[in-house]
Amino acid sequence: MSKSYELFIGPNHPGIPGNFSLKIELEGDTVISAKGDPGYLHRAFEKAMEGRYYIQNLALIPRICVPEPDINEAAYSMAVEDLMGVEIPERAKYIRTIVLELARAANYTFWMGGFAGTLGLYTLAQWSFGDRDYALDLFAEICGARVYHMYIWPGGVRRDLPPGWEDKLLGYVKYMKDRLIDYDNIFFKNVMFKYRTKGIAVVTKEQAIEWGATGPILKAAGVAQDVRKDDPYAAYEYLDFEIPTLTDGDSWSRAMIRRWELENSLNIIEQAIKKMPKKGPVWEKMPNPLKWYVPEGETYAKVESARGEHGFYMVSDGTGKPYRVAVRGASHTHMFTIAEKVLIGQRLADVSHILVSLDVCPPEIDR
Amino acid sequence: MNIKEYEKGSFLKPLTSVKYLFKKPHTLRYPKETKPVADRFRGLHINDVDKCIGCGNCRDICPCAAITMEKASKIGRPIEIDKKGANPVRPKIDYGRCSFCALCVEMCPTGSLKMSKDLIYTSPDAEAFAWVPLEEQGREPGFIQDNEITPLMLEAEEMEELEPEVRKRSFEEMILGFSEEQARKEAMRCLGCGICMQGCPAHMKIPEYIQAIFDGDNKKSVKYMLEDNVLPGICGRICTHRCQDDCVYQYRGAPIHIMWLKRYATDQLEDYKNVNIEKMPETGKKVAIIGGGPSGLSAAYHLSTMGHSVTIFEQKNRAGGALAAGIPLYRLPIYELDKEIGNIESMGVEIKTNVKVGEDVKFKDLLKEFDAVYIGIGLSYGRSINLKGEEHPDVVQAIDFLRQVKVEGRRDITKHVIVIGGGNVAMDVARTVARLQEINYQSKDTTVETVSLEDWDIMPASQEEIDGALEEGVIFNPAWGPNQVIFNEDGSIKGLEVKKVKYVFDENHRFNPAFYEDQKKIIYGDYIIESVGQMYNFSFIPKELMDKLKFTPRRKVWVDEYGETSIPGVFAGGDIVETSKGDAISAIANGHRAAIGIDRFLHGKSRRG
Hints:
The complex is a heterodimer.
Chain A: E1 4-9, E2 21-27, E3 30-37, H1 45-50, H2 70-84, H3 90-118, H4 122-143, E4 152-153, E5 156-157, H5 165-188, H6 191-197, H7 205-210, H8 216-220, H9 227-230, H10 251-275, E6 297-304, E7 309-316, E8 324-328, H11 330-342, H12 348-357, H13 362-365
Antiparallel strand pairs in A: 1-2, 2-3, 4-5, 6-7, 7-8
Helix pairs in contact in A: 3-4, 3-10, 3-12, 4-5, 5-10
Chain B: H1 3-8, E1 45-47, H2 57-61, E2 67-71, E3 89-94, H3 103-107, E4 113-115, E5 130-131, H4 164-167, H5 180-188, H6 195-199, H7 206-214, H8 218-228, H9 232-238, H10 242-246, H11 258-267, E6 286-290, H12 294-305, E7 309-313, H13 322-325, H14 334-346, E8 350-352, H15 363-369, E9 372-375, E10 381-382, E11 395-397, H16 398-406, E12 416-420, H17 424-441, E13 447-452, H18 463-471, E14 475-478, E15 480-487, E16 493-505, E17 511-524, E18 527-530, E19 534-535, H19 543-548, E20 570-572, H20 584-602
Parallel strand pairs in B: 6-7, 6-9, 7-8, 9-20, 11-18, 12-13, 12-18, 13-14
Antiparallel strand pairs in B: 1-4, 2-3, 3-5, 10-19, 15-16, 16-17
Helix pairs in contact in B: 5-7, 5-11, 7-8, 7-11, 9-11, 12-20, 16-17, 17-18
């Protein structure tokens, strides 16, 4: 008689971050093998993009990442702008930066809730989901939608900031900074959090580099790599910020990196608002969407998402619709090359929080 | 951030969250309390269906294919459907598909479509989630268009033209035409909705030929043009461009220069050899066409493509009708006429010039010798207004004057000229006079004045013609009616006495001008050109046939939907029929229609034939 048994985690499981399934083999409560089982969310985004006008894809791409849709808009727009050889106005660069950082902050806030939830601390989840809503309200004011913004588009952004929005945003930043003290007290300085996550699912520096990790996983392993610094886009080159790193590469370090990055994002927002030109165009005129022929060529545009490097590889054959678009989501690597390996030997109770600490986002895998 | 502090961990710190027990919650008690909705919120749609023109651009851009166009009769309330430049359909949105991206709103050329702040709708019926958005559904506007940031290209390309001072010195063509870059850019603006096609009397395939220009395929473009318009290069210069009046860009920006795009594409081709409509096998049938104007040429071209042998009888020394004799050189150069009429001849059409039907050949003989006859004689005689003193030799008809200048090379003019009329022909005359005065007198101490019954707001001439005339120094006297010619003692003309117009159209909207008899003034001038319309001359038709020829109440020749007159086998088109709007393009459309009718007749399909 075999000692091991198979268990499905997901697609309907409170401990799985989205419509995704994980097939694990256990011996007792120790994982002996793990296999990601994608496809529950597959909507053929990449294929669908080939049949649509460049502007129509704007309605599609935010759906590749629910908690942080703006990275898709930014990378897609940057790819189109690169193929067309368009430089966007200065103010638009700053607005993009602010929007991307606000989205990052909202995403980490959301993530904290999910992470604490998998550890059994639901108070933090309620707090953070509520606080994320304030960021969504700010998004609704600039673009009219809370979740799928479609605000960044090729050439710049879709509308200028409404009057008084910057002040509201600064209010939000201040509020979040105050709230972080509470978040620290209830969670990040909580000894239970430490006991549950310290030394769990370690990804060493060497492993992280070899397995192609990006974002918080890489930073938690001690590599200061970030697209915002290495290959600056939007207005990041004009801004002063540090890339946080830790050395242990465990679940605790990854969580702390995100906590740190959240604070970082709030600081970047403050800085960007100060430096942003107060007036000026926010959009470089683009062609009629129905006759928007992008010059022949290929390009890869990348941004730093909350999970790591997020990029769009785009090939144009000179017509009004992209010939091929491939989306590089960090979660794909993090699931199939990292999670499947680091889960081995872990306890069943830790599987959920390890997945969340690696921040595996299913829509990025099923695209 | 001090990481050491976090590494330590604490048992007590989490307990500080107990303070939230005594704080107000930040959630709202819905539905008692509601949250203010953002001003730009992208909720359910609002559409001002009276402003909407049913162009379908929202449907075309919708990434989710959530928009279909619903027939006006199914909207649930009456809307003005026979509006100019509009389709009798309105968008219906399926909220089962809509992604609330608002691209439809961005692309709405009229600005009728908006998004509201309302997002809440429930129904147990799945069908109920698709509806035609209306204003009276009472939703508060949210996301709306912005003319600064819009995917529509609202601004038109500037057309270069000669400066008024330069162009006055000669009869050189004043519009310089688009460069390739300009043409591609202007063509790029087109949304391809096809609203313009309804405005064009010939229903040219405008979106298709603009797309071909955008693709850089001028041959394909001209090929599309020739299917409905045999004189595209000429129309690209002188058309009344009703298409542009309908262009959806007019509501938020400038209409596309459709006419000049047409001119650009044709100018790129030396001849139309490879783009003509393919000829069908010879049928052996013969068709006579009386009058070599645009309608006759159009009929001839299409009939020859249908395999019939066609002969045009033209009384003047060159074909072209009003195009050849009337339209001044600065608008339509001779080489363009030669190119396009030459193309029609290359299709096997025989043009007999200097042949006057009724004198050189008898109309009855034509009926005997040919299987069908087409009359496209146009309005080639000036209409007099029975002005007191108009029998003086220095009072002339516009059509004669223009022909003298264009065809016979007349270059003399007096110093003070009065033009009676406010239409496009009057503008042609006035601007021709301005050029002649510049050539003869360098415009020193010269005047050219127009007198029209119509005031500025109802002047029949197109705005660009009026503006051009003003730039060239033409003086306008709108809302004045001619009373009588005043003479000097030596018998020469001293001027024109005019009286103030009370109204031009009476309460039944009929042309019935009335004047203030006590308000009179004299416009001084020594030469008067009457430009108040033209008329036809049917004297070549024998009386017994003339009696059979049916006329409409407005004294135009009656024709059926295939252009056939009340005499079997005799077809008519151009300015002499009711459907003409008095311009080249409607004559071309008439000619095409009659060609189809003649073809049917020759194949024995006529209703009466």
